[in-house]
Amino acid sequence: MILQNGGKNTGLVMRMADRQPPSHAGIFYNVRDFGAKGDGGTIDGDAINRAVDAAAAAGGGTVYFPAGSYPSYTIRLRSNICLYVDQCATLVAASPVDGKGYDRPEPNPHDKYQDFGHSHWKNSLIYGEGLHDISIMGPGMIWGKGLTRSTNVPEGGGNKTIALKLCHNVTIRDVSVLHGGHFAILATGVDNLTIDNLRVDTDRDGFDIDCCKNVRVSNCTVNSPFDDGICLKSSFGLGRARSTENVTITNCQVSGYDEGTLMDGTFRRTWRKYSDSTTTGRIKMGTESNGGFKNVTISNCVFDYSRGLALETVDGALLEDVTISNITMRDIVNSPIFIRLGARMRGPDSIPVGVCRRIILSDIVIYNADYRHGCIISGLPGHPIEDLQMSNIRIYFKGGGTAGMAQRDVPEFEKDYPEPYRWGIMPAYGFFLRHIKGLDMHDIQVRTLMPDARPAFIWKDVQDTTTNRVSPM
After folding, report:
1. Looking at residue 24, what is its pLDDT?
2. CA-to-CA distance for 418 and 416, rounded, in angstroms?
3. Sign of CA dihedral 417, 420, 422, 423
4. What residues contact 85, with CB distance under 8 A and at least 6 apart?
5. Taking the C-alpha atoms of 99, 115, 235 and 256 in order, what is their torsion angle to the nearest 10 degrees?
6. What is the DSSP letter of 149?
7. How far apart are the first and last CA of the chain?
8. pTM to 2 decimals?
9. What gap in Å lies between CA 91 and CA 151, rounded to an integer?
10. For 128, phi and psi rounded to 5 degrees?
11. Whether the Cβ atoms of residue 120 and residue 105 lie closer than 8 Å to each other
12. How far apart are CA 115 and CA 315, in angstroms?
């Protein structure tokens, strides 16, 4: 295949026996033809952006990274552009020098309602706003080497690998991301989003999908020991409440191994001790929950050495019509199932408490879950979780709880950050159920791997309940 630059033959011939890099317009823009060195030392960002601009000026095309190492600061995507990172090519986030580096974070008058990272997009390795028909693809790697994982970003610094705002028709496929900063992918207000077959081994969040519609996440492996793996959010970062809806997450694996050990295949757990408040990983909705979540399906996913599944609405939003099935978990460091309707209410004034309803969980197997928390499902007085169905669930907890733990009175924690470890040791080792209306539980079995003096189930203010074959094993 002849690669072309703006319709002119570059003379670069590529044999593509099994695959062919995608292209919008049939035209390829090799970043080396625009001055990129790919030597691992030269900052190639200007050359990369020249290639992007040339492709955009021609109506679109594929910006191609052949084998090599390409340090860069902010790459500004354009509509109708594909970034294709080929085998043995690495796009590297460079470290800022003397306060110079990434684009500065843009002002956001609504930043008090969510974390800094959710309020700014420009200070990223790859950035796009208001774009359509864009993709990032290839079997190569994106290494966020010079990014910070902190919200305190230094002058000229960046803290996200890929940040997209108010875009549509977006595909991210096949690439690997190592050490991705605060977010490996932050998608805010992005509609028609496909994330497929990514391998991510990062130091904070993997995917944060915020205020997005029509989303497909599939066949991804995300290792994120310090924060969430795959996280749906609905923040106020856009200056309005916008829901995250019509989402499928399927055939994915999340974990909290030592950073880098997913990518090198060693899967180590030695950096820190087993802890309910440190190791993270997991799939979650929340905590940012101004716009809400609806029409979400999570299926065929594996959790290994991570926190468990978390569904949270605490900022006045709806969380409704969620189906979760065919899940396996092992070595879960805190609550394996956590569903919370709270009243943190971080958002504009006068928003009422949210609603959490119509949730189905089925066909779930969990082994070696932490003994301290059990499964916590809790609404608020006067604001119950509604219409919850759970079936065909088997959970094996570590055990070891005492009779004294069983006497604990659990506060409401209505204004607290919704995280299981903050609730302390629970009085039930299996399920703590509170403020629920319309609960259907059948074929639920829990047991402990060592003796536990606490009851398996505690029910408080639970109405309209149907149970069948619900018991300790």
Report:
1. 41
2. 6
3. positive
4. 65, 91, 136, 137, 138, 139, 140, 141, 142, 175
5. 100
6. S
7. 62
8. 0.92
9. 23
10. -155, 140
11. yes
12. 14
